[in-house]
Design goal:
The protein has 12 helices and 6 strands. The relative contact order is 0.12. It is of the alpha+beta class. It has 2 domains: 3-160, PhyR, sigma-like (SL) domain (Butyryl-CoA Dehydrogenase, subunit A, domain 3); 168-295, Nuclear Transport Factor 2, Chain: A (Roll), CATH 3.10.450.50. A 6-stranded mixed β-sheet has the order 2-1-6-5-4-3, sandwiched between helices.
């Protein structure tokens, strides 16, 4: 198989691992590029690679662990709340059930509370379903230690994730009602769609005006959202429904059709549990390319 064929076959899984590890499209792309560069250099030295799939997964995992360790230092100095870079080009409906939960912004934020090695072990085993011996090899550990890492991470995640997940159709219907109520400034309808302990998170990165800490509670979130959307509308900002990290969401475009924000909803138990809004322009550059493509569709 040629290098180009290998890249085409292995890159999607490599990026999927790197993005879930790092929560950053740009950093994930850098890690994937470095991994393939190293594999190419190994092949040019005529060194044998028995399993390119395992080789790339190992390189991506270890590079992502190193990258995450250094990224955490930067994130501690981040202005306001740090959120992942969004993926607006969500999966197709056929893939949605398999990937949506592990791509959601809420899930990626939850993974931030794990150590880099816990995060890697958990994702490789629970999301990508690698056997324990392969996970241990990827992260440079033994099987018993890997099982312990996964067990601790699984317990941590289960404690904090909603236990009931709505179907794809239920999520989309609830999201449509939410966006309609928010756009109309209907506080009563908006509150009825929110969980009692709903939380609103906004990432402006110190680059644009934004909340610097989460807003919690049904009434406060409803009022904050209604006021924020009304203020944006007065500035000529319009909203377009989109799939954000495999979940219902929207993109916000200004009067010149420039992307100024992305919002994703976390839905469970028949209510909206979390709202994540990314307005940091540095985190929207890759999304803007996606939006440009979507505007060109008939």
């Amino acid at each position: 198989m040629s290098a180009a064929d290998l890249y085409g076959e292995l890159r999607p899984r490599a990026f999927a691992i790197a993005y879930r590890m790092l929560g950053s499209v740009s950093e994930a792309e850098d890690v994937v590029q470095e991994a393939f560069l190293r594999m190419h250099q190994t092949l040019r030295r005529d060194e044998r690679i028995s399993s390119p799939r395992a080789y790339i997964a190992t390189l991506v995992t270890r590079l992502a662990i190193d990258q995450l360790r250094s990224a955490r230092v930067r994130r501690e100095q981040y202005v306001g709340e740090w959120l992942p870079e969004p993926l607006v080009a969500g999966p197709s409906p056929a893939e949605h059930a398999e990937t949506a939960d592990s791509l959601s912004l809420a899930f990626l934020v939850l993974l931030e509370s794990l150590s880099p090695r816990q995060r890697a072990a958990f994702l490789l085993r629970e999301v990508f379903e690698y056997p324990y011996d392969e996970v241990a090899e990827f992260i440079g550990s033994d099987v018993d230690s890997t099982r312990h890492l996964v067990a601790r991470a699984r317990h941590h995640v289960r404690e904090r994730r909603p236990r009931y997940h709505a179907s794809r159709r239920q999520r989309e219907e609830l999201a449509q009602r939410f966006f309609a109520a928010a756009g109309q400034g209907d506080l009563r309808a908006l509150e009825a769609l929110l969980a009692q302990d709903v939380s609103l998170h906004v990432d402006g990165g110190g680059k644009v005006p934004a909340l610097t800490r989460p807003v919690d509670g049904r009434e406060r979130v409803a009022r904050t959202l209604s006021a924020g959307i009304a203020a944006l509308a007065r500035r000529g900002v319009r909203f377009q429904v989109a799939s954000v990290n495999g979940q219902p969401g929207l993109v916000a475009l200004d009067a010149q059709d420039r992307l100024v924000g992305v919002m994703g909803l976390g839905i469970a138990d028949g209510r909206i549990q979390t709202i994540h809004s990314i307005a940091n322009p540095d985190k929207l550059r890759h999304v803007d390319r996606v939006v440009e493509v979507s505007r060109a569709q008939p």
